[in-house]
Write the structure tokens for this entry.
Amino acid sequence: MRRSITFRLNGDEVTVEVEPHWTLLYLLREVFELTGAKEGCGMGECGACTVMVNGKAVVSCLYPVMEVEGKEVWTVEGLAEKSPEGLHPLQKAFIERGAVQCGFCTPGMIMSAKALLDENPNPTEEDIKTAISGNICRCTGYVQIIEAIKTVAEEGHGKGTA
Amino acid sequence: MERELLNVVGKPVPKRDAHYKVTGQALYIHDIKLPGMLYGKILWSEYPHARIVHIDTSKAERLPGVKAVLTGYNIPEIRFGFYKDNTPLKKGKVCTMRDEVAAVAATDPDIAEEAISLIKVEYEPLPAVFDPEEAMQEGAPLIHEEHGTNVLKLPWKLVAGDVEEAKKRSAYIVKDRFRTTWVTHCCMGTSGCIAHFDPEGNLTFYSITQIPYLAQRDFQEALKVLGLGDKKIRVIQTYIGGGFGSKLDTHPYEYIAILLAWKTRRPVKIVFTREEEFRCTSPRQPTIIDITQGCDREGRLTFREVHMILDNGGHTSWGSTTPSVMMMPISSLYRVPNVLYTAKCVYTNNTYCQAMRGYGNPQATWAIECSMDQLAEEAGIDPMEFRIINANQPGETTPQDFKISSCALKECIEEVGKLLDWKQKRGKRNGRGVGMASLIHVGGGARVYRSDGCGTIVKIDDFGKVQVFTGATDIGQGADTVIAQVVAEELGIPVEDVTVIWNDTDVCPWDVGVHASRTTFIACHSAIGATRKVKAEILKLAALTLGVSEEELDIREGMVFSTKDPEKKIELGKLLRSVHYRSQGQMVMAEYFYDPDTVMLNREFKGNFSKAYAYGTHGVEVEVDKETGQVKILKYVAVHDVGKAINPMLIKGQIYGGAMMGIGYALTEEMIFERGELKNPNFRDYKILTAKDVPPMEAVLIEPWEELGPYGAKGIGEPGCVPSAPAIANAIYDAVGVRIKDLPITPEKVLKALKEKEGKD
Ligand code: FES
Ligand code: FES
């Protein structure tokens, strides 16, 4: 039986019919056709599906869709769309610092970083590592990802956007 | 090429496709849907070795939404793989727990899954064998009866000089046995494909392959069996969520998708779950390695003798050919005049193996570099000095007949020594220690097929923008970027004006695949060749327009100008428009095929099969907790001889990524099989390193200009993961005096070794 839920997606209010057993990842990918959140495992173990719900990074592959009701969801697409320059500073830094190789982990990684910087604009390297420790990247060895996040924090761009 | 005056080459140009990836717009196989597309699903074997007595698919066939159910009994026989011992769906018997027994196509993934659960297979279990040494014995269960033995008939033997004679002359000799186990690529994007036949019977195959043009040929063989031998095959690659060698072969699931698509005449997509990715893709080959090495009184290596046993698993993919690359470090890492190497690949009922970053080199280097430390100790020489004494040098020819052009191995070793403060830190045995290990790898392509070629087409549009069609494949390493850089450099235009198109066999020229760290070297050479032809044409046209001679013309920032009279100039786009929009106009476009003048290894496995060779040394400082056996990396340095770095930022990305993979290989990663069944098919239990595990790490580039390289460059895709494990093992030995000889080096193994040592001391 489908049910209707209403929530804010990338800044806009949306109402949508869902099957209660769906995950948020399924809703985003299959209904809203947002391809940023990836399914790397479907079991909460890789972080490729990370999005932000009410300011926190969550693995959307485990997030029950009914719990989204009334909440605020952000995906990597929204970060770009709602940034005045077309890219969020984190997205820019990931590009410029070589933090992207195959790119499969990238959207989830950026959302984890965004949740961190929103909460803690001046993170230590350890804070950064902890914040993205649920996001597996097989390509980069994380070094340039950590650098990219650090740059954004240092430039004071962490807060405020989107 | 003027080394000093480079505008784009040598710069940290961001990866060209990164903006698609950071915004979620890059489409991977998981993101692609075609109208009318069906979802395929595979039923895997329940036994490591069993006769298939009966398959009942009737219930599955009756499930609404199911469009096809296939088994080995209702499809024609298609054989593939290096040894042609694999089929898409198994008939008669299964040889591994990952054998494909049946497949369905249905209108949605849930129905496909349900249909799979409705298929009933009756098996008669057969005696199985999981240890290659047991499998070699008389009377062991035969995996492929028709083969008569479990030992594959492969000729892996390399002889150079006279090892027996050299043994007599050696002052010091060490001998030991090392082991490595299965590790898997863990590409973050799981495997998948979409197969689709058009109404004429031509196949379009959406793919994540690393070998689009070889895959085309493999699939053509399959189509022949279906009576479609004259049909066309188009391979379209989506963005690829990691490669690392895993996509260097064609795989059963791909043939299954093709068969389902042909049966239903609808597009069929198969995408693996993470569990399937762990269980059903082909990992790195496990090895048992016996190594003996000797040196003279001065510490000069006299010989190296290596005998290996490789667990081939139940079928054969490229894993069985990794000895051909293992020979490279065995014969040519350090100067060793006498070499003997043999390898046996043995069928078992385990999973079967494939290429994985390094292609056997990590296993071989593991044994060689641990043994190097043992030999240095035996000879009473500092391991760093010992390596310097034996370091390869530019201009030498190795026992395998490799012609070493540039080589900065000595500099790499010395740099590691400096960065680690080697002399101060080594030899304390106080729980902290330092270790190092080096590598050699092909850095100028590798003629492992009859061709090592790559084609490029370059064209210029009305606006002076350049489209480059390359045969090369980008798996995230940055082929799209370095190719754009060399083209921009050659043409004197901004790199942003270059678009690299690489993903469609109908559009792009031929290439042999992304492997052997070859893409930068080969594809850039090819791109340069095409661009130079284009540039010559541009200058010719501009000379006519400007009324000056071609020789005095050049291009800078998109402007063709006279070097004698800079006032005489024309903007590139304007020039192109003028030649397009006139009567008897023309296009400006060129192609080029680069295939290096290397040779395949001959019957003795000798010959210069790469244009250049890459070197590197990794150094590590560790702290070992004697209570827990935990190894903590305090510092990790990776120094690589890369030739000229076309893009230092991307190269460092390759090195960091490789090194973290290498550290995982050393300390945590292990596929645990029990009677052929994988016990840890998930990221909880298979321990891939996370950001929290990143040690203080430095990547250092040593850049000797490689005369034979494109802008002096050599390949770097694989080297980063090769020497990590022995470097760490050597550091652990330096810290606490125990040597772990089988990977991974878990705390339990360290603790056990410490206990044994205490018992002895
Ligand atoms: S897909 Fe959600 S954590 Fe892996
Ligand atoms: S860039 Fe490939 S997994 Fe992170």
